[in-house]
Write a structure and sequence with these properties.
Elements: E1 4-9, H1 31-48, E2 54-61, H2 69-83, E3 85-95, H3 102-111, E4 115-121, H4 125-130, H5 137-150, E5 153-160, H6 167-178, E6 184-189, H7 197-203, H8 212-228, E7 233-235, E8 238-240, H9 247-253, E9 258-261, E10 266-269, E11 272-276, H10 280-290, E12 294-299, H11 302-313, E13 320-321, H12 322-329, H13 333-336, H14 339-347, E14 351-354, E15 357-360, H15 368-375, H16 378-381
Parallel strand pairs: 1-2, 1-9, 2-3, 3-4, 4-5, 5-6
Antiparallel strand pairs: 6-8, 7-8, 10-11, 11-12, 13-15, 14-15
Helix pairs in contact: 1-2, 2-3, 3-5, 6-8
């Protein structure tokens, strides 16, 4: 049932002002207690989602690179025992340049991690301070070099559309980032998420985000330059050489089943949506009391699943096969797609149709959410 496994490590050294992920700062962490709890949660999940060998494992957070390599090794050994590993399994761990050293990378690689995703975010010290990062540009470069030495596959993140970004400045930053030769890079526009410190700064007038037109121009520039460098977008914000796409994220976007363990982790298995307790302490209490960290397990009706699959699949440049989706969930094409809206958007060059597949054209990627609101059937969204 579950082809992919997500493991959430909720702890960070510092909360970044733009971050709305489930991350927490604690003075100390009882690693032994967390090993026992995560393994118990994993065993409980495998009892109901353990029919297929895993094709990918992803350690997210938080800052998973703060995990001792021995803990990573123990969790991977348990996952292998419970599910089994498919040949060539992708095992990714997110890392921050300020929280890792060469010794940690070597240990993580020895534990079984074969792909790392570095939260570089910027190669400019002033921008890193603005983003609340603990590392500097030189430290990020050293971490990137070490990662390329120890792991078969390396990705890193960059954030653009900062308040001071002009097309000329971002092009310089992007050209440098694309020159490091990684097979994958994630390029995210700065977004002001509710509940973050940046959201408070905007309300108080301390921060003025880049306007929509300027951000859209930077998005177009990003797509063009990454494509020219041999890393075309395969998803709205993710770029890779052929074969270097994140298999784990593809499992989400193609709407495959995946198991999610650890605080706040979401999962999809057998038509059921699961979510774990978000606060670390509540997660530990739940595992002790009930044997797993689940806060909610909610059955999804076929229209709900189809809506999620559409919203995820249309993020991919490959688009989605509407006929296959309709057959999977026992629906008809008119129950999935607003045909008039799709035809109009295709005429405008914002979307495309090829046989039974539909997708978002490059010209439409920058306004993806608006397109989805139009083309996903109203009756499906209301289901």
């Amino acid at each position: 049932m579950a082809r992919a496994l997500y493991i959430h490590w909720p702890f960070c050294a510092k909360k970044c002002p733009y971050c709305d992920f489930n991350s927490h700062v604690r003075a100390s962490v009882d690693v032994g207690a967390w090993e026992r709890a995560l393994i118990a949660d994993m065993r409980a999940e495998a009892e109901v989602a353990g029919e297929e060998r895993l094709t990918s494992i992803f350690f997210g957070g938080g800052t998973p690179s703060l995990m001792p390599p021995a803990l990573v090794a123990a969790l991977l050994a348990e996952a292998r025992a419970l599910w089994g590993f498919a040949e060539g399994i992708e095992i990714t761990l997110e890392a921050n340049p300020s929280s890792v050293e060469a010794g940690a990378f070597a240990g993580l690689a020895a534990a079984g991690v074969n792909r790392v995703s570095l939260g570089v975010q910027s190669l400019d010290d002033a921008e890193l301070r603005f983003l609340g990062r603990l590392h500097g540009a030189d430290e990020a470069l050293r971490a990137l070099e070490m990662a390329q030495r120890h792991f078969a596959r390396v990705s890193f993140d960059m954030i653009y559309a900062l308040p001071a970004h002009t097309p000329e400045l971002w092009e310089q930053r992007l050209t440098r980032a694309l020159g490091f030769g990684t097979g994958h890079i994630s390029l995210y526009q700065l977004t002001i998420e509710p509940g973050t410190r940046f959201a408070s700064d905007v309300r108080r007038g301390r921060l003025v985000p880049l306007d929509d037109d300027a951000a859209a121009a930077l998005f177009d520039l990003t797509q063009e330059r990454a494509q020219a460098a041999g890393l075309p977008a395969y998803e709205t914000s993710n770029h890779a050489r052929a074969g270097e796409e994140s298999r784990h994220n593809l499992a989400y976007w193609r709407y495959h089943d995946y198991a999610g363990i650890g605080p706040g982790a979401h999962g999809r298995r057998g038509g059921t949506a699961t979510v774990r307790h978000k606060k670390p302490e509540n997660f530990l209490k739940a595992v002790e009391a009930q044997g797993n960290g689940i806060a909610e397990a909610r059955p999804l009706a076929p229209p709900d699943q189809a809506a999620e699959a559409l919203l995820m699949g249309l993020r991919l440049t490959e688009g989605i096969d509407i006929a296959a989706l309709a057959a999977r969930f026992g629906l008809t094409r008119p129950e999935l797609v607003e045909e008039d809206a799709l035809a109009r958007l295709c005429d405008l060059g914002m979307m495309w149709t090829r046989g039974t597949r539909i997708g978002v054209a490059p010209e439409g990627r920058g306004v993806l959410d608006a397109l989805l609101a139009e083309v996903v059937a109203d009756r499906l969204v209301a289901a």
